[in-house]
Amino acid sequence: METKAFQKIYTKVTQITKATCTLQASGIGYEEMATVNGRLAQVVKINGDNVTLQIFSGTEGIPTNAEVIFLGRPPVLKVGEELAGRFFNAYGQPIDGGPEVEGEEREIGGPSVNPVRRKQPSELIATGIAGIDLNNTLVTGQKIPFFADPDQPFNQVMAMVALRAKADKIILGGMGLTNDDYLYYKNVFDNAGALDRIISFVNTTENPPVERLLVPDMALTAAEYFAYDKKETVLVLLTDMTLYADALSIVSNRMDQIPSKDSMPGSLYSDLAKIYEKAVQFPEGGSITIIAVTTLSGGDITHAIPDNTGYITEGQLFLRRDSDIGKVIVDPFRSLSRLKQLVIGKQTRKDHPQVMNAAVRLYADASNAKTKLENGFDLTDYDVRTMNFAREYSNDLLAIDVNIDTTMMLDKAWELFGKHFSKAEVGIKQEFVDLYWPA
Amino acid sequence: MEKNKLTTGKVAGIIANLVIVDVDGPVSQNEICYINLGGVRLMAEVIKVLGTKAYTQVFESTRGLKIGESVDFMGHMLEVTLGPGILSRNFDGLQNDLDKMEGTFLKRGEYTAPINVDQEWPFTPLAKAGDSVMAGDWLGEVKENWIGHKIMVPFKFEGKYTVKSVKAGGTYKASDTIAVLTDRDGREVNVSMVQKWPVKVPIKAYTDKPRPFRLMETGVRIIDTMNPIVEGGTGFVPGPFGSGKTVLQHALSKQAEADLIIVAACGERANEVVEIFTEFPELDDPRTGRKLMERTTIIANTSNMPVAAREASVYTAMTLGEYYRSMGLKVLLLADSTSRWAQALREMSNRMEELPGPDAFPMDLPAIISSFYARAGYVYLNNGSTGSITFIGTVSPAGGNLKEPVTESTKKAARCFFALSQQRADSKRYPAVDPIDSYSKYLEYPELQEYLAENISPEWLANVLETKNLLLRGKEAYEQINILGDDGVPIDYHLRYWKSEVIDFVILQQDAFDKIDASTPIERQKDMLGKVLEVCRTGFDFESFEEVNPYFKRVINVFKQMNYSLYQSGDFKKYEAELDAIIKERKAA
Ligand SMILES: Nc1ncnc2c1ncn2[C@@H]1O[C@H](COP(=O)(O)OP(=O)(O)OP(=O)(O)O)[C@@H](O)[C@H]1O
Ligand SMILES: [Mg+2]
Q1: pLDDT tens figures, B476-510
Q2: Are the beta carbons of A397 and A130 closer than 8 angstroms?
Q3: What's the rounded Cα separation, in Å, for the pair A33 and A247?
Q4: ipTM of the assembly?
Q5: Cα A311 to middle of ligand 2, angstroms
Q6: Domains recognised in chain A with CATH numbers
Q7: Ligand 1 centre from A152 Cα, in Å?
Q8: B382 and B261: one domain?
Q9: Is the pTM here over 0.80, yes or no?
Q10: What number of H helices and E strands is found in chain A?
Q11: d(CA B278, CA B276)
Q12: Taking a contact as any Cβ pair under 8 Å apart, which residues of chain A between 342 and 401 contact chain B?
């Protein structure tokens, strides 16, 4: 980056909109950072001499004679070991009262990993939660969101997963986090004695929404430092990506772009992919795993935000309250981990894939039986057995409060099969039935 | 070529990857230019011209670009380099060799040579002095992996040429002159093993493009048996996220009876490409006994790579396909996902403030899609041999709703429709191809019907249609049972439903991750369909509907064990006997 001997101050803003201001300036780089009366801004359009800046905290009160200073560089984060244990805002400035971090300046939102320099993800992440480990096994280098309505306890589950995942570093990117949730994360990590492995970039509901746009790139730049430079296992938590996407739509709307579905910008897929694709397993050992939260409205996954997310991530974990057992479960129908086949039956017991599929199939039969019952029809003996199975399966395996290892999960599943069904009804390969069918 | 002085220009405007350039001379639509950014050269393509302003889409990030930077126009469109050494490589959307790039992270402006022109190849001449030739005619051959790679008269050559000389058999570098041709006016031109071609222009070095008629075996039962694809055919796989598009495409790339496979990873996940180049070098190609990677070429423009290059990537892939088709080869081209390509078009069109069509896609989207699919096909080459490109693209409809522009436009262009259903995916009925909605138009082609009758059996088509009908009747019975209740319908309804379930579980469902079940040769498909139909045609005695479900569960279970067993192995025969016994138990007298 070239450094400037002196900084020119511009004071003639020619146009102001809700999100941007325009002025005449020359020698400005695209995506360069600037300050407008002290507020951080970024170049989003250059047309001849006219430079348009997006002001992150909004343009309220910006006068036509505002002082504009160009910083001569894109947004950066200073990276170093000192990041560990620290809390920052969306601009990467400390909010924990500690000193500025000294370190190497890195551009955020930097280039992508060459696909041929990636390694296929292969390390299983155990969480103890059977709804995840049994049915939707996670792997390092994976990117996967929780899909949940705002009233689901996704922040709790995510914190639990993060702590059990045995990562060298946990990086929290909070977007539109309520102050209470922010403090919740801080407490949980503190109580677990994990604060020294945590790095947080937080935009709370008290901060301007557009600032959120910087959070994922900040978090992932820090993640790349630890995963690539330091070869560490890094877990990145992004919550809530729906609020991130909302901020994107605010900006594109204010810049008069043609919206596509659900008033989201047409580039939503690419915008989200750029973030999620930072998840990677490096051949040299480091990895970045991204676990995100995408809140839904009324469970609607066809909305543009969850829809585009689902097309990008490697599966999704769907949280839902099961009224039959009164607990929150990881829904086996809508949830999916696409990388699970890389580890299940290989790093876990051989019967894992078949047991998992059989259980979900039987659970589906139960849900058909339930529909029958609701429509006022008589249930067959099989229907009744599937429903009994489903209740126990849900309570003993799908509920998020389960914490056992994978072998115990498999044993539990066989126990339930044996209790409720005949071998033919379960339909698992004979070799496994011979080995594990309960006596 | 004839332009004596190349046009230059200066950057006048920047909005993301749309860069407006003031030019000092003539430019053409789709011309390639390089924009200077502090010593780095960013490749871009002209997509609109207004007076002296050229609107270009840059294939890289424009971060840091400034007004006034210089731009050099190249006088040609986006081109690929064609020659031996393309197979088994991993290219990006612009045909840069990804393995040759340095460092872990992609650097802007780093362009690497697609093929090594200094590599030596053992050459055998196929033409001789005095032959009259034209574009696409074979002059000689080199061995590339196991393929006889034809060295052809460059596609850009117009009209007739006479061969003046061809090198004798021997080892030559790709860049060496291997033949000298003379044009009508007696001018001599040297031909090497390497040529270039603009990706957006179809290669038309063939005499005829008949309707395709030969079955292309894929080992996937729901395709081969139920909705067959043909050599030179087109198909598409729409489906909501997670419904199995990529798994299905990977299965095709592993198993299909093609000479070579070109996979365009277009705006999808990098890990899925990694899967291919991790696994394919290890997997055997049963047809040749060599590694699968030897017949596979990857064009990777993953979702985090530059958006404009995504559009280029599908054209790059198609052009490579056309090149190999001209050698008389059977090419299978797979693109995952064509929706990402359409979205790239949409992003650009919006940035240029064009009048948007439905869902903000460009107005000419249907035309773009149909002319792309039209490049596939079965052809007769100038010398009478045949070659084909079979193209199967995936479509990722927003919200899983098939009433959207990309799906609708593709449906008009492609002849096979493999619709993945959310419901089937949710209940893990993989591959989740909807048996009722999906179709293969080729099944209606008399050419294919004849081929099937000759190569599988005379009754095959009738059996397939009967199977489809049984599925439909099963579905109707199921709906009736749901409306009227289990005991509100005659037992026959339960039978009908369960017979369709047998077809579903045994023929339609297939475990892509099981060594044996993953791929079913057509001989075995024929056998299994025969057995399943035998069960479906059998009359059964049941006292009450409650006996039907457990009985057919047993039938299905044994059938599935057969699917998991090596064909005609001891286990297979054991289960077959078991099945016969179960059928006898209930068979109506
Ligand atoms: N034939 C199959 N056999 C077993 N499992 C399958 C099969 N097809 C798909 N699956 C399961 O479904 C998951 C999702 O499949 P896939 O990645 O192909 O979906 P997709 O349609 O390509 O989704 P996206 O649009 O998001 O890319 C797989 O990871 C696998 O678990
Ligand atoms: Mg896919």
Answers
A1: 999 999 888 888 999 999 999 999 999 999 999 99
A2: yes
A3: 19
A4: 0.91
A5: 7
A6: 9-70 (2.40.30.20), 76-338 (3.40.50.12240), 352-436 (no CATH)
A7: 27
A8: yes
A9: yes
A10: 12, 21
A11: 5
A12: 353, 357, 360-361, 364, 372, 375, 377-378, 380-382
